[in-house]
Amino acid sequence: MTATQGWLTLVALSAGSTLIAWGGGTGAWVNLAILALAWAKAQIVLNVYLGLAKVPGWSRGFALVLGLFMLAAMGLAAGAV
Fold first, then answer.
1. Please, is 10 exposed, middle or buried when counting C-beta atoms within 10 Å of its C-beta (0-12, 13-18, 19+)?
2. Please, what is the Cα angle at 75 between 72 and 79, to 5 degrees?
């Protein structure tokens, strides 16, 4: 993925999270959807802009830590509703 493709993907994911938030929905599904989009955006930033896609070991390590963090955040978000 090029930097331009990464940027366009980030814009699309940001638009998606904005639409979900503007939708006025409530409940765990709104929180989880926005967190899932944030997770995808974080992966794009790490792999495309920080170049971790070129270093598979570091990429897997960051993905693991980010995944554990996001799962914890999703668990808290789902439990708070």
1. middle
2. 145
Residue 11 CA to residue 31 CA, distance in Å, equals: 19
From first CA to last CA, the distance across the chain in angstroms is: 37
Q: How many CB atoms lie within 10 A of CB 47?
A: 18
E strand segments, the chain = none
CA–CA distance, 43 with 78 (Å, rounded to integer): 22
What does the pLDDT look like over 10-69, one tens digit per residue? Answer: 999 999 999 999 988 788 889 999 999 999 999 999 999 999 999 999 999 999 999 999
CA 80/CA 65 separation, integer angstroms: 23
